[in-house]
Amino acid sequence: MRLEQFPEQIAQAQEELLVSEQAFRDWNLHYQALINRIDYEVAFDPELKNEQQRKAVKGEKLQQPEFLAALDTLHHLQEKRDRAAIQLELLRNQFKVALLLEQQSSL
């Protein structure tokens, strides 16, 4: 890659990271809403008489397919965000190396 191509590539990588971070934050809000709903249901269930029963029912609800799918999606988005951050850092480092090599060759 030529030096003049790096700024555009870095900007694209920054945009990808921004999109990934936003998707992760949005899905994390959804995930937290699911947890809050479960907490509410357990807290106000009149059939649950003590804290052990509440913990057991909450544990069961956290194993429901809807919650597990949300957790899986959250993990996937976190990995995507992390890969975008790694790619951005790689491009920045490659640009620095290319600049150093250019400076050395002009000496």
Query: What do the pLDDT scores average to?
Result: 96
| Domain tally | 1
DSSP helix count? Answer: 3
Tell me the major beta sheet: none
Radius of gyration: 23 Å
Tell how many strands the DSSP assignment holds: 0
Structural class: mainly alpha
Helical fraction equals over 70%
Strand content bin: under 5%
Q: Shape, please? A: rod-shaped
Q: Alpha-carbon distance between the termini?
A: 21 Å
Query: Segments where pLDDT lies below 50 for 5+ residues?
Result: none
Order of helices and strands: HHH
In a few lines, what is going on in this structure?
Helix content is 84%, strand content 0%. The protein is mostly helical and 107 residues long.
Layout of secondary structure:
Layout: H1 6-43, H2 51-61, H3 65-105
Helix pairs in contact: 1-2, 1-3
Describe the structure.
This protein is an all-alpha fold and 107 residues long. The chain has one domain (3-105). Helices cover 84% and strands 0% of the residues. The protein contains three helices and no strands. Helix 1 (6-43) packs across helix 2 and helix 1 (6-43) packs antiparallel against helix 3 (65-105). The longest helix is centred in the C-terminal third of the chain and has 41 residues, at 65-105. The radius of gyration is 23 Å and the shape is rod-shaped. The two termini are 21 Å apart. The mean pLDDT is 96.
